[in-house]
Specification:
Layout lengths: L3 H6 L4 H6 L7 E10 L8 E6 L4 E7 L4 H5 L8 E13 L2 E13 L1 H4 L26 H9 L7 E3 L23 E9 L2 E9 L4 E4 L2 E4 L27 E9 L3 E5 L2 E11 L4 E7 L14 E5 L2 E4 L10 E4 L5 E5 L15 H4 L7 E11 L3 E4 L6 E10 L6 E6 H6 L7 E10 L5 E3 L5 E4 L4 H13 L21 H5 L10 E12 L5 E4 L10 E2 L5 E3 L4 E3 L3 E11 L4 E7 H8 L3 H10 L1 H9 L5 E13 L2 E13 L2 H21 L1
Parallel strand pairs: 3-5, 14-17, 22-24, 32-34
Antiparallel strand pairs: 1-2, 1-4, 2-3, 4-5, 4-6, 7-8, 9-10, 11-13, 11-15, 12-13, 13-14, 15-18, 16-17, 19-21, 19-23, 20-21, 21-22, 23-24, 23-25, 26-31, 26-33, 27-31, 28-29, 29-30, 31-32, 33-34
Helix pairs in contact: 11-12
Pfam families: Rep-A_N, Rep_fac-A_C, REPA_OB_2, tRNA_anti-codon
GO molecular function, one term: DNA binding
Family: Belongs to the replication factor A protein 1 family.
């Protein structure tokens, strides 16, 4: 057993006080073990806590603190200070302790054993629990963790359950736009704080001295509803109020479908326990300008629904803003956390494989021209720009922006870019992309941004990064066909990306296109059935028609050798100037014209972006090279590239 000195470090009896709803100062506790609750989604950890008198097994670590266990800052026997927590009664006599803010004091490896415990107050570790959490399903466990139902009460740091601060309604004889503010006392962290809450009139909210129409927010939030943590929300609750910080909002997106046209945007909320996504459609999308990032709001009356898999955050549920939703600005949200990042250095990102998601920060050193490409997902045109980012590792990486993010990006003087959940891609080497699962920020007010800005400004002229020229050429990435043909197929387990100036020597005119699935976004080859329909194996559907998709088989050559490649859809369309459907009509109407269109490619020069990858076919490995881009040769730019190559070779020869 530990010495009495160590024993005195723990806040003996504090757990019992928490369960009795007594006021408790930050407590010194010891973790005696933890278990990961089985199931999909965000990991959840259950803790066994010791205060020197009692072992308590019904403790939960807030999701945003999972890193403490994953990084081994919390381990068996660790002594820590519990600065903030929430306590909720899930059934009579059973309370869950949610740890919201933890400060590690003594690592478990140093403490090495259990601090003395009064055995009369000990439950048998994790085992003697009713119901047994050891055998509890993830859904049941989630229900206990979230159980702040309409009749439940949640207290923070075991003060009386915090209710919604009183908000006076606008007097009946006052003008609709007049605001009434009221002073209310809110108890959090064992302190009394005066909070000034602004209440809206029947149809207007005054914000920054301007009126914002919120037609769906016709009443103030019901003051009798308790504020509940995000982690407690379920679709089965009728009355709840959130107090949360807006950490991000997307641009407004317009859409058109069979039911008509509309618009929507998403915003993301954070409190001490978890994050959650909210979506606002059509009239509710007018809320976009009212919500400000990093500001705190009271929210009630939204629908709680199961979240989609492609959400920015790992949460079981999301909110749907409706006509009954009420949102009001809170001026007392200083204690709520801000969005946190787990930045991965750019040199380390270069070692990752595709489809990983990382938080990245970097100075934007160069911006490509805005261009329009055809999306492979839905076959629609989309705007794209590329940003070149660097951090203190001085290794540049490309970040691609799409759609409105690309079109609205303002070219500033080397802004600091921050992306949460940037997607790692292997296009033209390892690069990053801002996807629907990403949060994109320019010069956010966080410490890391100021540090990186100071570092970059102090570089001066000592470090330069290649800007994006019109063809984005990089001499280091150029190869010859001799280099590619000499690759050992068995030793090439990763795709090779390279650039090359080459001529088209031959086009396979017999198989320049194929019948593909007519379903939007699917380009799988279809087979014609006996009943004159077209079957797609990928979609497992039969269709009355098909579409024609280009797939050019090209023999390319440079000064060193030749090589067979394939060019697919949008790249092939750019090279010949016709989409697949139009080229097929030409073939049906005039075979000679069709052949001339393809023959016109012969001996044309392009700067190609190529990818070579080993594929296995009939148990035989072969190297397949695909054309990713084909750009016409710009004589001036290519001449400069050749001059740079000559000078580089001169330096190499002189060094020898």
């Amino acid at each position: 057993m530990a010495s009495s000195t160590n024993f005195s470090e723990l806040s003996a009896g504090s757990i019992k006080k928490m369960m009795d709803d007594d006021n408790v100062d930050p407590s010194i506790l010891q973790i005696m073990g933890y278990k990961k609750v089985p199931g999909e989604g965000t990991p959840r950890y259950r803790l066994l806590l010791n205060d020197g008198e009692t072992l308590y097994p019904l403790a939960i670590l807030a999701i945003h603190l999972n890193y403490l266990i994953e990084e081994k800052q919390l381990e068996k026997f660790t002594i820590f200070k519990l600065n903030k927590y929430a306590c909720t009664e899930v059934r009579p006599g059973t309370k869950i302790l949610i740890c919201l803010e933890i400060e590690s004091l003594s690592p478990g490896s140093i403490v090495g054993n259990q601090i003395s415990v009064n055995r009369s107050n000990v439950t048998n570790g994790f085992s003697q629990i009713t119901p047994s959490i050891n055998n509890m399903s993830n859904a049941e466990y989630s229900q206990i963790q979230r159980n702040a139902n309409s009749n439940g009460r949640i207290s923070y740091n075991n003060l009386p359950a915090v209710g919604q601060p009183a908000m006076n309604r606008v007097a009946e004889n006052s003008s609709p736009s007049k605001c009434i503010s009221t002073q209310t006392t809110l108890t959090v962290n064992n302190h009394h704080e005066n909070s000034l809450v602004i209440s809206s009139g029947p149809s207007n909210v005054v914000q920054n001295n301007r009126n914002v129409s919120l037609k769906y927010n016709t009443q103030t939030i019901n003051q009798s509803v308790s504020v509940v943590p995000i982690i407690s929300l379920t679709p089965y609750q009728n009355k709840w109020t959130l107090k949360a910080r807006v950490i991000y909002k997307t641009s407004i997106v317009t859409y058109s479908n069979q039911r008509g046209e509309g618009k929507f945007f998403s915003f993301y909320l954070l409190d001490e326990t978890a994050e959650i996504k909210a979506i606002a459609f059509n009239n509710q999308a007018d809320l976009h300008d009212y919500l400000e990032i990093d500001k705190v709001y009271y929210i009630t009356g939204a629908n709680v629904k199961p979240s989609k898999e492609n959400s920015l955050i790992k949460s079981d549920f999301e909110l749907m803003v409706t006509d009954n939703t009420k949102i009001e600005r809170a001026n007392d949200g200083q204690n709520l956390p801000y969005l946190k990042f787990n930045f991965v250095p750019i040199p380390q990102i270069k070692t990752l494989t595709k489809d990983n998601y990382v938080d990245v920060i970097g100075v934007c050193c160069s911006v490509s021209n805005l261009r329009t490409i055809v999306s492979k997902v839905n076959n629609r045109e989309v705007d794209k720009i590329d940003l070149l980012l660097i951090d203190m590792g001085e290794v540049p990486i490309t970040l691609s922006l799409w759609g409105s993010d690309a079109k609205e990006f303002k070219r500033q003087n080397n802004p600091v870019i921050v992306v949460r959940n940037a997607r790692v891609t292997d296009f033209n080497g390892i690069s990053l992309s801002v996807s629907q699962a990403s949060m994109f920020f320019v010069n956010p007010s966080i410490t890391e941004v100021f540090q990186l800005r100071t570092w970059f400004d102090n570089l001066g002229d000592s470090f330069s990064v290649r800007p994006f020229p019109s063809n984005e050429w990089n001499s280091q990435s150029f190869k010859t066909f001799h280099d590619i043909n000499c690759l050992e197929v068995e030793a090439t387990d990763q795709p090779e990306y390279f650039m090359m100036k080459a001529d088209v020597v031959m086009v396979n005119k017999e198989k320049a296109m194929y019948r593909s699935c007519p379903q939007e976004g699917c380009f799988k080859k279809v087979t014609e059935t006996e009943n004159n329909k077209f079957k797609c194996e990928k979609c497992n559907m039969e269709y009355d028609s098909s579409t024609w998709t280009l797939l050019l088989t090209l023999n390319l050559a440079d000064f060193s050798d030749s090589h067979w490649t394939v060019a697919f859809r949008d790249t092939a369309e750019m090279m010949i100037g016709y989409p697949g459907e139009q080229l097929n009509r030409i073939r049906e109407e005039n075979e000679d014209k069709y052949l001339n269109v393809l023959s016109a490619l012969h001996f044309q020069s392009f700067v190609f972006k190529l990818r070579s990858k080993v594929e296995v076919f009939n148990d035989t490995s072969r190297l397949k090279t695909t054309v990713l881009e084909a750009n016409p040769v710009e004589p001036v730019a290519y001449t400069k590239k050749l001059v740079a190559d000559i000078r580089r070779m001169e330096r190499i020869l002189n060094a020898e």
